[in-house]
Amino acid sequence: MANSSPPPGTSDIFPEEISSWYLLEDAARRVFPLYGYGEFRTPVFEYTEVFKRGLGDETEVVQKEMYTFEDKGGRSLTLRPEGTAGVMRALSGTDAVNGNEWRVFYTGAMFRGERPAAGRRRQFHQIGVENVGRAAPEIDAECIAMLAHYLEETGISGSHLKLNTRGAVADRKPAEEALRAHFSKNIDVMCEDCKNRISKNVWRILDCKQAQCKEHIENTPDIVSYFSDETKNYFSKVCSVLKELNIDYEVDPRLVRGLDYYVHTVFELVHPGLGAQNAIAGGGRYEIFLPETKKPVIGVGFAAGMERLIIVRDALGLPKPDLKRSPVFLVALGEAALASNMRLAAQLRKSGIAVIAELEARSMKAQMRAADRAGAEFAVICGDSELQKGVLVCKNMKNGEQIEIPSENIADYLKTRIS
Ligand code: HAM
What we know:
alpha+beta, BirA Bifunctional Protein, domain 2, Rossmann fold, 2 domains, 5-stranded mixed beta sheet, 16 strands, 36% helix, 22% strand, binds histidyl-adenosine monophosphate
């Protein structure tokens, strides 16, 4: 028997479910342009280097989760695990590297070879934004405010904003040394990955979810105290602007985010309507070096997981928008009626009425069943006698009422009655 399931961690989206996706995309296309953002589309795959350099060699995503393959010329390509690195690759060829501002948003499929679970997919979809070229605490705060506005527009309430700072690049050394000194006391009992991380990239330990590492992560010293005054001032300005904008947040000193490009502000939006995978969106300020640019591309942005937004909307009991199905079904009895219905269908569609016309000779019963299945409000029936009289029989599928309408009036009749 053929297996109708797609590969693990991927999903089919049937037409009945698509209205939730349209709602999230429509909200993005409404809200982000209000802040001057334009939609950007980059390829679904990039040269592998774009992600390795962008996200960091030691990250979980690069080490374990990328779908990588070779093209015919032997160059390594990777399905994008996230959107930021590709956008930076594209903008590195523009004046963004000279500090000119670009404001872009994107929606699309991302790919990570993670263990599938509720809210954790191998192909998932993000809605993301990037404000590229400039750095200021106010820009970071506006970006967070835009995320809050977007969520409001999707009807989602009850999320919780976690905020932290990763410090400037120049701040890293003392903080890293403090982290290394702290973890080296217990590294023997920590997981194998953390044993590697302590020398390679000690920050990644803070992201470890293993039970044996948890206690030592919770006891981490206050990293912010190792940062420079410049970093501390930057962060307190982000916090004070958020307060002015009435955006609630909680500072979480353990929040480092799973990607290495972050500097200064990092944030995550969590929602109790989700299970273990409780982040509906995450983001922050970043710096990405690409060899083609002698300078880093800087920016701030976030991405929200669309599958997770839909889970939360469902958990909150928010209604799914009702997509109009075809309200009119044309039933044809006989060859001549089939041909006439084809012309009628074209005319009705041009006047904006969605129509399904039966295109094969089938029994009246089979056609009425099909009209019902299509969710039609009206079945318009045509046979030889109707053609002779120049009328159509219009059946209201809800109450069963049937009346004859002159053919030339059918479009006006339906227009005033379909919902
Ligand atoms: P991220 O935190 O890796 O950040 O992903 C952002 C969001 O994508 C997560 O909060 C989650 O909702 C969703 N997500 C991630 N992985 C999965 C998965 N396997 N299944 C379902 N949903 C998932 C980024 O991707 C950054 N590029 C965000 C960013 C933009 N930072 C600055 N600019």
